[in-house]
């Protein structure tokens, strides 16, 4: 193929033979060079250049394909940054349709690789490496060479052997630039980009070693351009792969001799870093087995031979030959403090606060090291807008403000989800935008999943939480949109009229399925729809007042609930919950099986207001808007007959405000897959004929929005 790129991030076992590493390419273009915007030839030529560069990078790593591939753009006025990234890999030809590969690749693939470490083995020639790196024999099979660190844009392969748990690692960077127009602006951005890439890579490497880990998965680097600044945000999930060598520590080296105070400060920082590494290893349960030194095959080098990370541009050009990333498992990763930027890097290492006890976070679908998930999930979207002060704005203060903004956003999520402990925030997706001058917008979408600390799932549920009948499809086929407003606690088939009859009264449980279904009165359909609309209005008013409701429970004493229940054919169903369509950014639902895909959902929403202050300011406006987006997506999926949305993503969130005129506008684009799912516990249960059924109120899994 011309471009053997795969946008997939998860693959079946054995599909990935070797993984070479991350390949990326960026290009700065001027949109005014497109003479006819309606003709896409120019844009196609731009992307063809990017893809050709990605392909050449993959070939330099000895790979013939790119997996986890993605493309993105960042536009400010007439300047556009085109970005593409992926993971160079060698694929198993047995999984490909044509099966045509080069002879050397087939011969290499035919060599048996032990499961769990084969994808870590280097695909390139050891004697002609494309970049400086230290190789060691695989710690799992002792046969092939592996690198000391591995960066990828894909999820962790299922066959990978991991020690301990993973964690979310982020690199954040801001750089000021002068305001310019057209070609001068594009030139300044082009000059900044290589150094920003280097800074982001340096932060990722340092934070990875600070956590005692040796591999990154799900790496996503976003470069955003604004009128007077560039922002970079890299997110990945760090893990400890058993096949790779144990990372060394981080050693700080100063350049100011004969200064007692400075040396004391350096010593104090070194002690804090060593203590942090030890705490992280304990927190993430990283306890690799000790190996004899002769197996490692690399002695501890002298301090003068150790690798150095140089921030200075002049020194980096002179010391390229010394940039050897690591020498064995006990060598330290030296950070040389030669300027204020380097000291800033050291401080940024220690400002990242680990999650509270009971919380874990990752940007991949599954947290490495945790497999005992429960069906309880809670998806959320948070948007935070901050206005920067233009007084004495420097790179250091800008970095600190950006770092604090991201850290405070994560802390607020941990606080709001504290009732779900122990849980893990999976598929944490950050998006940074610079909609206006001095305005920074951060949006994050993730899902919180609880897990069982005792390594045992609740396999045996209460009888009321089991499936006690097979839904009759005779009457459902007569309805184009089967509806159900009173749900059972599991919400496994929220629109099944047969389930409504079963929950309502024990007198109907002994009737045949067809009779139970036909006993439901659908004549008051319009009244029930009116009640549903009134309920949505009530919830919207509650949201605008500033309260966050995570359940859709109806108050038994409320007049709305009484009117709602009057329209039901079974009056004994009290204290019921409205069945909420599940939403998750994951491609699956824990503890459930997707039985049918109903199609893709791609929706655009626009809201504007001329009374911003009266609606609670920016927070109130965005909160209400996102809640409405969730409600409309759920309603659309319910109309299709589905009960869940998987692979949910908020692709765009463009917010603009005019505080002087009390106005604001926002555009949101979301997409996902509408599906029908059934709980695995229901599939395993045989039909039961209980004498009574008691409805229990449970959380309906509403969304927390900010």
From TrEMBL:
UniProt GO MF annotations: calcium ion binding; calcium-dependent phospholipid binding
InterPro entries: C2CD5, C2CD5_C, C2CD5_YbjQ-like_dom, C2CD5_YbjQ-rel_dom
Domain C2: 2-93, 143-241, 356-449
Any single GO BP term: intracellular protein transmembrane transport
Domain C2CD5 C-terminal, chain residue ranges per copy: 583-675
GO cellular component terms, semicolon-separated: plasma membrane
A Pfam family: YbjQ_2
Renumbered residue ranges of the record's region Disordered: 292-324
Identification of the protein by name: C2 domain-containing protein 5
Source organism (scientific name): Balearica regulorum gibbericeps
């Amino acid at each position: 193929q011309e471009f053997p790129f795969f946008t997939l991030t998860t693959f079946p076992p054995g599909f990935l033979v070797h993984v070479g590493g991350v390949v990326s390419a960026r290009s700065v273009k001027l949109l005014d060079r497109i003479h006819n915007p309606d003709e896409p030839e120019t844009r196609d030529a731009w992307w063809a250049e990017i893809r050709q560069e990605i392909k050449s990078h993959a070939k330099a790593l000895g790979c013939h394909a790119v997996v986890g591939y993605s493309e993105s753009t960042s536009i400010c006025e007439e300047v556009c940054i085109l970005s593409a990234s992926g993971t160079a890999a060698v694929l198993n030809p047995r999984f490909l349709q044509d099966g045509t590969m080069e002879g050397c690749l087939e011969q290499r693939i035919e060599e048996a690789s032990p499961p769990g470490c084969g994808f870590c083995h280097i695909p390139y020639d050891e004697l002609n490496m494309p970049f400086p790196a230290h190789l060691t024999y695989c710690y799992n099979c002792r046969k092939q060479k592996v690198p000391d660190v591995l960066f990828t844009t894909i999820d962790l392969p299922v066959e990978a052997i991991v020690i301990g748990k993973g964690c979310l690692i982020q690199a954040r960077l801001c750089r000021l630039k002068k305001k310019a127009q057209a070609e001068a602006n594009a030139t300044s951005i082009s000059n900044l980009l290589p150094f920003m890439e280097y800074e982001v890579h340096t932060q990722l490497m340092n934070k990875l070693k600070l956590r005692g880990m040796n591999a990154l998965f799900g790496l996503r680097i976003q470069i955003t351009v604004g009128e007077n600044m560039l922002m970079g945000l890299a997110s990945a999930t760090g893990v400890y792969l058993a096949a790779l060598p144990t990372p060394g520590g981080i050693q700080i080296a100063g350049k100011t001799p004969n200064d007692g105070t400075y040396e004391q400060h350096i010593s104090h920082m070194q002690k804090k870093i060593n203590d942090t590494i030890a705490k992280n290893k304990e927190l993430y349960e990283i306890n690799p087995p000790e190996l004899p030194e002769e197996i490692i095959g690399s002695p501890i080098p002298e301090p003068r031979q150790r690798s150095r990370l140089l921030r200075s541009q002049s020194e980096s050009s002179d010391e390229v030959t010394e940039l050897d990333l690591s020498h064995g498992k006990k060598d330290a990763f030296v950070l040389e403090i030669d300027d204020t930027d380097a000291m800033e890097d050291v401080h940024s290492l220690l400002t990242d606060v680990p999650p509270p006890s009971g919380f874990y976070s990752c940007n991949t679908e599954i947290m490495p090291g945790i497999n005992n998930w429960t069906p309880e999930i809670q998806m959320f979207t948070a948007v935070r807008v901050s206005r920067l002060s233009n007084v004495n704005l420097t790179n250091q203060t800008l970095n600190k403000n950006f770092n604090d903004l991201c850290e405070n956003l994560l802390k607020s999520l941990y606080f709001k989800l504290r009732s779900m402990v122990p849980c893990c925030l999976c598929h944490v997706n950050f998006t940074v935008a610079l909609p206006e001058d001095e305005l920074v917008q951060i949006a994050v979408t993730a899902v919180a999943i609880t897990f069982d600390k005792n390594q045992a799932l609740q396999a045996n549920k209460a009888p009321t939480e089991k499936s006690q009948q097979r839904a009759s499809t005779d009457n459902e086929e007569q309805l184009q949109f089967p509806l159900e407003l009173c749900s059972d606690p599991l919400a496994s088939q929220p629109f099944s009229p047969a389930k409504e009859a079963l929950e309502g009264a024990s007198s109907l449980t002994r009737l045949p399925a067809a009779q139970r279904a036909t006993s439901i009165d659908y004549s008051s359909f319009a009244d029930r729809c009116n009640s549903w609309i009134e309920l949505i209005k009530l919830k919207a008013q509650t949201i605008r007042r500033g309260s966050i409701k995570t359940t859709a429970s109806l108050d038994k004493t409320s007049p709305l609930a009484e009117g709602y229940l009057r329209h039901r054919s079974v009056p004994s169903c009290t204290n019921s919950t409205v069945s909420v369509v599940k939403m998750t950014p994951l491609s699956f639902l824990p503890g459930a099986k997707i039985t049918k895909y109903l199609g893709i959902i791609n929706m655009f929403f626009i809201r504007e207001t001329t009374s911003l202050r009266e609606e609670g300011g920016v927070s109130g406006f965005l909160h209400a808007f996102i809640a409405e987006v969730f409600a409309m997506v759920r309603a659309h999926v319910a109309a299709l007959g589905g009960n869940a949305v998987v692979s949910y993503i908020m692709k765009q969130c463009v917010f603009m405000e005019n505080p002087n005129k009390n106005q604001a506008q926002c555009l949101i684009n979301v997409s996902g897959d509408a599906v029908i799912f059934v709980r695995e516990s229901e599939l395993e249960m045989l039909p039961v004929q209980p004498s009574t059924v008691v409805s229990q109120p449970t959380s309906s899994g509403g969304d927390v929005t900010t």
